[in-house]
Amino acid sequence: MFHIDALVKVLTSGGSVLLPVDTAGRVLEILLILEQYWTQRHLVYPIYFLTNVSTSTVDYVKSFLEWMNDSISKSFEHTRDNAFLLKYVTLIINKDELERLGDAPKVVLASMASLEVGFSHDIFVEMANEAKNLVLFTEKGQFGTLARMLQVDPPPKAVKVTMSKRIPLVGDELKAYEEEQERIKKDEALKASLSKKEEMKASLGSNLKASDPMVTDASTSRKPSNAGSYLVGNVDILIDGFVPPSTSVAPMFPFFENTSEWDDFGEVINPDDYMMKPDEMDNISMLGAGDGMESKLDEGSARLLLDSKPSKVISNEMTVQVKCSLAYMDFEGRSDGRSVKSVIAHVAPLKLVLIHGSAEATEHLKMHCSKNSDLHVYAPQIEETIDVTSDLCAYKVQLSEKLMSNVLSKKLGEHEIAWVDAEVGKADEKLTLLPPSSTPASHKSVLVGDLKLADFKQFLANKGLQVEFAGGALRCGEYITLRKIGDSNQKGSTGSQQIVIEGPLCEDYYNIRELLYSHFYLL
Predict the structure, then answer these.
(1) Of 18, 164, 292, 441, whose CA is between 20 and 30 Å from 488?
(2) Which family does the UniProt entry place this protein in (predicted)?
(3) Which of the following CATH numbers is that of domain 2-168+319-328: 3.30.1130.10, 3.40.50.10890, 3.40.50.720, 2.60.40.10?
């Protein structure tokens, strides 16, 4: 919240804010935070989400609300309010709308996060010279990138950047390009015609030698034949009628094999086969002629993907004076201290190795984990070697044939499972599992398997049942609800999973329970 207040302060002073982000992922949370803050404060400053796929990304996320947290899913369940129907955020796929605003205060979330390429690179060059502007980083930049250079303390006062721009070919360059393309097409056509001629000669070579005499095996005939045959030493194939050319493996009808050229990247293709015809492009333009965001997306896609005009990229290096403010907000979402401590407590490891953290954070977590006397914590330095091997009480046992003859196993994926009641014995100095000497006590039925509620939802929907996710549970019909509950009391393991069926004892209850049992193996 502190960074958002600083962001608003920049806007009120007449500056603009740039947030270099990726095209998806954590940026969706940032959009929701800004949307909520703007709604509460009734702010009027425009927010733009600028990537090549901004519209399609948000449209895709709108249909996956069941994978969001409870507040978003419950809000949609009760009020049908989709959190990603953004009122204050404008989705754009090019810089035209930004250029129309000029120097007006605005917030721009642009790709890419590294500032090396993309919209964020160009916008940074435009905003860096103004002290009233702010560049707010949401993640640590990769080594060697412009973003990482700007995140050092103190930041540089000037940086060198490479500006690239694609421009169409004109004049002599366009003429030379067209002549080169024409020459390539002629060479390809000539090469194709020569290849076809060679194939024709190879396949029709037998017709050219139709008058050749018949060849017989020397061992079967010792006299010249009156039928015009002659003898060749050690030939054991009788070819009656024609002799195949040396390039053929056997006599056959003419066959033209479609041979393709290959390079280091695979089969060589002809780009003209994948180019849209002018009438098809006109149809796309007609589809994108309507109003609203969908038409904007179609026009932008057509311009980005279907522009086949000859062009070239020109680049020039320039020095940018960094006068704008720079700030870093840790929004990578990898893990926080409380979450790491909770995970470690749940896993309950015997040994723990801490790496890749700052010295302060590593020492703090090491002191916290050292309170558990059963846990050995290691924090090795760079290039330090540690030994974490341990002795385990593991025994190798042998299953006797008499025991296995009475075991009924069931197929589970690539494995077979079975419930075994046995006694441990010793045979030939080896531990062996033997059949029990007395009748074993009956055991409770065990359901073996791993059920994913998302897959089970699709299974029930195929059966004609109305199902939906609500509050982390699967609601089936009007009365039945399925919940997946973990046993958090079991430390040192992930705990057993329980499927709880809630609802009145009715026909739907028993039908859904039977369908649920069909996804498990009963032992």
Answers:
(1) 441
(2) Belongs to the metallo-beta-lactamase superfamily. RNA-metabolizing metallo-beta-lactamase-like family. CPSF2/YSH1 subfamily.
(3) 3.40.50.10890
